[in-house]
Amino acid sequence: MSSSPLLLRRATCSATTVACGSSSASSCCVPTNGELVLALQWLPGYCQSTSCSSGVLAGAPSNAWTLHGLWPDSCSGSQVSTCDSSRQYTDTQSRIQSSSIYSDMLTYWISSSGDYNTFWNHEWGKHGTCYSPADTSCTGTSKGADLVQFFSDALALRAKFDLYAPLAAAGITPGGSYSATKIRSAITAAYPGIAVGLQCTSGVLTEARLSLLGVGGGAVAKAASFSESDTCSGTVSYPKNSASTKTAATTTATKTTSTTKGTATSTPTSLGSCSYKGDTYCIGADGTSGSYKYCDGSKYIAATCQDGGAGSQYLTTDQGPLCYQDQQYYAGCY
Q1: Which of 66-80, 207-221, 268-282, 284-298 has the lowest mean pLDDT?
Q2: Is the whole model's pTM more than 0.85, yes or no?
Q3: Do 331 and 292 form a contact (C-beta atoms < 8 A)?
Q4: Distance of CA 265 to CAs 116, 232, 261, 281, 295, Å?
Q5: 127 has catalytic annotation
């Protein structure tokens, strides 16, 4: 494992460390502005109510919600923004273009106008600079390191709190109309304790805002109950992306069930695994999204168990370290 200050701080940060709970918690471990709003966009709905650039929907995955942003708020719930005037970048896209997250950014953090650089500049400058784990005192001063920290944590949360799969499991699939109450119930059933605010325009579902609280141990955040604004009522349309030419690989990173625990019945030759509390967990990658799952996938990464300190474990792989939390592994362990 790298000996950079950030890697060391994350490795020794316990999964039980929760933002807004202790003034002694490292700001590199959990965000100082610890209430986080994860804004997930349903682009077919957004583009139905707002003019989107030609080709945006064709390039968006047909079976995945994409990111609008990750918005840190203070622990008292106050909105914060533009927290560092010295890091208001105008070249965000080029700063991360050679990073391992760039492909996922193009897939899951889509600009409706097609101008990725301007969109990412805005989300970073207004919100990312208020996310303390992305401070240069935590990431170091290498060009783009702060951006990669913020964006990779947001991407990890998008995968962790996937919306498409739990909605589909509840019979809510694109192309139909459903009660807003049913949609909220499907999300809160998948992620107990979470508060969700749905956003609609003229009866069309465009966005969901999830309430989260920053945590340590590589899990980034957990469900929280502080309320979010909600503009959906009655029956709402959940439009299908008929223009899409892409399908995102599915992930099981959002929920743990008894069928995913224990040793796999069919073990691929390139399996990586860790033993934790008597169970053996396997790690795999879908090859495109950068999210990882148990032994029920078709592609696997050779990995080695490591002791991260403070009772934590992580896997090292050819795609970097993965962090363990709540019986799951997550990418982006920095």
Answers
A1: 284-298
A2: no
A3: yes
A4: 43, 44, 11, 12, 9
A5: yes
Contacts by 137-140, CB closer than 8 A, 24 or more apart: 137/28, 138/5, 138/6, 138/9, 138/27, 138/28, 139/6, 139/334, 140/4, 140/5, 140/6
> 169-223: per-residue pLDDT in tens?
999 999 999 999 999 999 999 999 999 999 999 999 999 999 999 998 778 999 9
pLDDT at position 22 is 66
At residue 195, φ and ψ (nearest 5 deg) are -105, 140
DSSP annotation of 44: H
- Token readout for 304 is 């080695």
Helix or strand run (H / E) with residue 120: helix 116-126
Nearest to 283, CA basis, from 324, 311, 246: 324
Give pLDDT tens digits for 32-51: 999 999 999 999 999 998 88
At 126, list the tokens: 């207004």
Sign of the dihedral defined by the CA atoms of residues 252, 253, 259, 263, in that order: positive
**Catalytic residue check, 122:** no
Sign, CA dihedral 141-10-260-256, equals negative
Q: E strands of 61-106, at which residues?
A: 66-73
Catalytic residue among 68, 122, 207, 228: 68
Torsion of Cα atoms, 238 then 293 then 67 then 6, to 10°: 160
